[in-house]
Amino acid sequence: MKKFAVAILFFLLTYFSGYAQNLSNPIISANITVSAEVIPSIELITVNSMTFDRLQPGQNEVYVNPIQDLNAGYMIAIGSPQADFRLNYLRERELTQVNGDATLIFTYEISGNTREDQETSELLDVDNRNIQFNNEGRYYIWIGGRINLENAQPGNYEGDFTIEIDYI
């Protein structure tokens, strides 16, 4: 019986010494799962810049129709096939005279299509609606607009135009 009591005492001492050691140096483990979804960027390629025909004396307005005019700017947006996106831009932009203080307001119009066909493109208002890339991940954009020349000063004018395209 003494051997049995010694064996139990030895077992208890071994158990509690291991338990005490774990209290001073506890082992903590955790499993963490990390996942990420990588969304490819959208590339915007300018194929043609918008051009204007020669102005005639007394001409009060210049208009480039993005659906019908060959002078419209032409861009291709490339992204994930069939992904939804939104296209945003400022409809009116100020153009400044290169060598002077005069300004003009240009009102942009944009049309777009999933096919490379300007005549069947659809006018895109600034209404934040969803648009979709085609099966090849392309969306075709034509840029036009109008400018009032009634009070324009002679000279060259410049300005920036920015399109933002974001996946939804």
Helix/strand structural class: mainly beta
Order of helices and strands: HEEEEEEEEEEE
Provide mean pLDDT, rounded. 83
User: How many whole angstroms does the radius of gyration measure?
Assistant: 34 Å
In whole angstroms, the N-to-C terminal distance is: 78 Å
- Give a count of the beta strands, DSSP E runs of length 2 or more: 11
Principal-axes geometry comes out as elongated
Share in β-strands? 35-45%
Unreliable spans:
1-22
How many separate helices? 1
The share of residues in helices is 10-25%
| Largest sheet properties | 8 strands, antiparallel
Describe the structure.
The chain is mostly beta strands and 168 residues long. Helices cover 14% and strands 37% of the residues. The chain contains 1 helix and 11 strands. Strands 1, 2, 3, 5, 6, 7, 9 and 10 form an 8-stranded antiparallel β-sheet that branches. A 3-stranded antiparallel β-sheet has the order 8-4-11, with no helix packed on it. Strand 5 and strand 6 form a beta hairpin. The chain starts with a helix and ends with a strand. 10% of the residues are buried.
Walk me through the topology.
Elements: H1 2-24, E1 43-48, E2 61-64, E3 73-78, E4 84-89, E5 92-97, E6 103-113, E7 122-124, E8 131-132, E9 138-148, E10 157-158, E11 163-167
Antiparallel strand pairs: 1-3, 2-9, 3-9, 4-8, 4-11, 5-6, 5-10, 6-7, 6-9
